[in-house]
């Protein structure tokens, strides 16, 4: 529970499943009103109805593909008209494909960049002027440990998350002047349906299943951090330690960990 978000309006993209759905539930438990964005209309509408009935908060689903920038602008205008002030944006929409660089198609690379990076930027661009005028707000960008530490079979996905972290770090310094908080969330592998696309063979999930994060715990960490000055949320801690060591000793880590990295 986070009493700071009671009665506040929170937008969550990619809210129809995985940690997006879990964050929506946790936020509704804390009394927040929600604008939920996702491509899958039946799922987003079903979740909105469930949360309204169970928690008595205002929840509206907005079917939207964040790759469509004109549709993003239209949807955010509708959200502003429906809810008024927007207090939190959680940019969660994203996907990954784990293939070696010569195997991933240009269309797949473009898809990841369009959703993970440009869609995130488009949504941020819509709320930032609102939050600037209000003098407060919180933007949370779901990145990845892959954005800190690239590994084989995730070169394109890691590139997209590197971009998210670069954007987030710059945005944080810009937004601070207006009273707007910015947090990056860098999880390792989470036990969600993310891997139905990222890992079609199931090999990666099989190899790292015992290390996978519980989506409810990740969601709880994010919701609990809202309206705090948390710069980053890094999960799990041991993986983030590995990312820090990689930044200091990249050659050593690449040599020692080479066999493990190819478990994707």
Automatic annotation (TrEMBL):
Record-linked SUPFAM superfamilies: NAD(P)-binding Rossmann-fold domains
GO molecular function: oxidoreductase activity, acting on the CH-OH group of donors, NAD or NADP as acceptor
GO cellular component, one term: membrane
Keywords on record: Oxidoreductase
Domain of life the protein comes from: Bacteria
Similarity annotation: Belongs to the short-chain dehydrogenases/reductases (SDR) family.
Protein name, UniProt field: Oxidoreductase
Annotated source species: Rossellomorea marisflavi
């Amino acid at each position: 529970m986070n009493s700071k978000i009671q009665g506040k309006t929170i937008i969550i993209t990619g809210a129809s499943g995985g940690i997006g759905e879990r964050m929506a539930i946790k936020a509704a438990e804390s009394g927040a009103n929600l604008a939920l964005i996702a491509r899958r209309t039946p799922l987003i509408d079903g979740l909105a109805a469930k949360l309204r009935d169970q928690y008595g908060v205002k929840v509206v689903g907005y079917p939207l593909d964040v790759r469509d920038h004109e549709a993003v602008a239209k949807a955010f205008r509708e959200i502003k008209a429906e809810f008024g002030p927007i207090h939190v944006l959680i940019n969660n929409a994203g996907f990954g494909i784990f293939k070696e660089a010569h195997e991933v198609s240009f269309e797949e690379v473009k898809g990841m960049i369009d959703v993970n990076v440009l869609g995130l930027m488009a949504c941020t661009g819509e709320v930032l002027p609102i939050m600037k005028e209000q003098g407060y707000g919180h933007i949370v960008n779901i990145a990845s440990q892959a954005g800190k530490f690239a590994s084989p079979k995730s070169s394109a996905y890691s590139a997209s998350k590197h971009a998210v972290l670069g954007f987030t770090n710059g945005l944080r310094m810009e937004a601070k002047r207006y009273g707007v908080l910015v947090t990056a969330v860098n999880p390792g592998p989470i036990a969600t349906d993310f891997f139905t696309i990222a890992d079609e063979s199931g090999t990666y999930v099989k190899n790292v299943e015992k290390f996978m994060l519980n989506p409810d715990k990740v969601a709880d960490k994010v919701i609990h951090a809202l309206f705090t000055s948390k710069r980053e949320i890094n999960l799990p801690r041991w993986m983030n330690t590995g990312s820090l060591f990689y930044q200091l000793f990249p050659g050593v880590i690449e040599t020692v960990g080479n066999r493990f990295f190819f478990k994707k």
